[in-house]
Amino acid sequence: MPKFSIIVPVYNSEKYLKKCLDSLVGQTLSDIEIIIINDGSPDNSQAIIDDYVSRYPEIIRAFSQENRGQSAARNLGISRAAGEFLFFVDSDDYIDTETCEKTYNKALCEDLDIVCFNFWNVKGEEKTFCDHCVIKDVDIVRKYILNESSPCNKIIRRSLFEESGLRFVEEHIYEDLEMIPQFALYTNKIGYMEDAFYYYVIHEGSTMNQKKYNKKLKSIYYVMDTLKKCFENTEYKAELEYLYIEHLMYFTVFRYLDYPEGVEDARLISDIMKKSFPKWRKNVYYKRKPFKQKVFLELVHFKQIGLLKYLLKK
User: Is pLDDT above 80 for 202?
Assistant: First the structure.
């Protein structure tokens, strides 16, 4: 059994793929497998994949499927993985060469099922350090639920996927937010590292940076409803409420304001919060938010969308 299965979904990534794969085959931990899933890319990605398979046949396994989206590609990778830990790397990103070695040593020494770490946002020649833990002074499990929901700044023991049956939801976006917090219901063996191992490359082609309205943005309702069903009858009700405040009321409305089609959804979100979490202002984590974010959320609450858009332009 390899120590790691690194799962790489690929779609139209010819511009970035070589840098990504170079960072994976160059890992200082040799006992790994790299599982590449070509999600029906019409560009030159498959030729690049074939080249790397021919050069590194002992560690790279490649599969192809018709275009079904990143979630389906990741799920196929999970079904093919044999590693002790799973690590998801997007094909336009890259990682530090010591990532696998250092995170595995952390997991081994402390008997952890999940190890979380920091990352870099990369835009052109500039990179910005990102601390994945905004809220730190809580217990391990709450810290995990409240903070960064990406699977890319974590290694996750494969047995957790088998025991929980969790997979990335397909035909939706926000799939990371839907699944990753749920692992908190299956383990408290979670550790944190201050190192920034992952390099997240920001470009206009990514789903969350598109300039045109995407109907899949409505996936957020399905995702939040799933989280509510999972957490509402647990000891993590305050954390669930905060996820709604942070991801639905703040981030989603902020994104909807970019599009005329999003105005009605912004008002709908106000209604959802009033019905599901009428006392959201008393949330212990909300009280820590910066003043400007609180003003934003108040305007959302009172459906002052026009005023909100005006103020954001100032």
Answer: yes
Task: Report the percentage of the chain scoring pLDDT > 70.
Answer: 97
Tell me what the mean pLDDT of segment 108-131 comes to: 97
Cβ atoms of residues 181 and 149 within 8 Å? yes
* 269 pLDDT above the threshold of 60: yes
Cβ-based burial of 85 (10 A; exposed 0-12, middle 13-18, buried ≥19): buried
CA–CA distance, 161 with 42 (Å, rounded to integer): 31
pTM, to two decimals: 0.95
9, β-bridge pairs:
37
Q: CA–CA separation, 102 vs 133, rounded Å?
A: 19
Q: Contact, 110 vs 140, CB < 8 A?
A: no
Q: Across the strands, what pairs with 94?
A: 199
Alpha helices in the chain (DSSP H): 17-25, 45-55, 70-80, 99-110, 140-146, 158-164, 175-179, 219-231, 237-243, 253-256, 263-276, 291-301, 305-313
